[in-house]
Amino acid sequence: MMRSSAFRYYRARTVRDAAAALRDGIPDAMLLAGGTDLVPNMKRRQQTPSLLVGIRHLRALGGVRNGHGLTIGACVRLADLAAHRGIAAGYRALAMAAGQVATPQIRNMATLGGNLCLDTRCTYYDQSAEWRDAIGWCMKAPGSAGGHACTTPDGASVCWVAPGSDRCWAVSSTDTAPALVALGADVTLVAADGERRMPLEALYRDDGMAYLAKLPDEIVSAVHLAPGVTGWRSTYWKLRRRGSFDFPVLSVAAAIRLDAAGRVADARVVLGAVASHPVLVPEAVTLVGTRLDDATLDSFALVAAAHAKPLDNTDLALGWRKKMARRYVAGALRELRGARHPD
Predict the structure, then answer these.
(1) Average pLDDT for 118-130
(2) What is the mean pLDDT of the chain?
(3) How confident is the model at residue 158, as a pLDDT?
(4) Best exposed site among 136, 230, 277, 303 by fewest CB in 10 Å?
(5) What pLDDT, on the 0 to 100 scale, is given for residue 34?
(6) Contact residues for 96 (Cβ-Cβ < 8 A; gap 6+)
(7) Which residues contact 120 (CB under 8 A, 6 or more apart)?
(8) How far is Cα 262 from Cα 249, in angstroms, rounded to an integer?
């Protein structure tokens, strides 16, 4: 049986109290809400916080609130998002993404904020401490209790995926982030002395280690979605080995808005699980003014797939995953045009 290292637990009184506890417990304090990713990581010694700050009980982080658009608390469970009628009707990609995370048991525990801040994954990283000891640890997990770190002769840390690289290439595997980026969501970050709001896409960096562009004592407290606009359609396609439980090896989130004539008035397409951050495809603007005919879709899918640069750090062959990016982009847009989503 794998056991985590010793830690202290603090039950926060408010969101800002939790942020203050993070600040005071830096560098190794972490938040605990659903714990579906953190607890297994702790047992594998990928993360060894000395302090866990409990926030699941905080009412300020719960609920789905209507107003100017929709505000979703960071501790809303993924199962509740998938079953929410308003989200399924106006923000379908999010409901689809939340409903495809892991298993029903995990979705009943996992939270939106946890999925948005999901640790990046890698074949060489997501293993037991003993397995990593056997080959030498990587720069994302730079050492073990036995001190068997993996370094080059000059002492530099090594990425097993790309040994000649000076950065970590662990991949972003969150399902909800690509869907919310495609929907143009904002996120609120709360610190002990204030808060700020930013586009969700700006929360992510293309770095397997420093993958979140937030301060260590900032907490993702809420996600904000603009009011549903007539003509918007969205979807989420996920590729994985099994039909449940598995993390994505590729995902495509797409949202389009049609005008009265049936032409595209706005479009956003996001690729997930192909880099250390969700990849917003800038060429989606070229779809504006088109009717999404087959030639346009195939041409755009080829361009979008060029942004998919998977490495050999997760399940299935990387060359095949790249080819599937083209098929999934085209398929998602054909669905939004009117074709049926595959079961």
Answers:
(1) 91
(2) 92
(3) 87
(4) 230
(5) 97
(6) 82, 179, 235, 236
(7) 140, 168, 170, 171, 172, 173, 208, 209, 211, 276
(8) 33
Q: Which of these ranges, 19-28, 45-54, 137-146, 168-177, has the smallest mean pLDDT?
A: 137-146
State yes or no: pLDDT of 293 exceeds 60.
yes
Task: Tell whether 18 is covered by a domain.
Answer: no
- What would the two tokens of residue 341 be? 């989503």
Nearest of 72, 101, 147 to residue 272 by alpha carbon: 101
68 and 198, same domain (yes or no): yes
Q: In terms of residue numbers, what domain contains 187? A: 59-118+171-203+216-225
Distance, in Å, from the CA atom of 325 to the CA atom of 251, rounded to the nearest integer, reads 8
* Residues sharing a CB contact under 8 Å with residue 162, sequence separation 6 or more, in sequence order: 169, 311
* Measured distance CA(286)–CA(20) in Å, rounded: 45
CA 116, chain centre distance (Å): 5
Distances (CA, A) of 80 to 31, 128, 298: 21, 32, 35
Residue 239: inside a domain = yes
**Interaxial angle between packed helices 318-337 and 294-305, expressed in degrees from 0 to 180 and rounded to the nearest 10:** 150
The pLDDT, as a whole number, for residue 149 is 46
Q: Give the number of domains in the chain.
A: 3
| Angle, vertex CA 265, rays to CA 261 and CA 268, nearest 5 | 140
Asked if residue 278 lies in contact with residue 255, where contact means CB atoms within 8 angstroms, the answer is no
Answer whether residue 230 shows pLDDT above 70.
no
Largest CA distance in the chain: 66
Q: Which two three-digit tokens encode residue 119?
A: 């640790």
Residue 145 identity:
A
Strand partners, 137: 149
Q: What are phi and psi of 45, to 5 degrees?
A: 65, 25
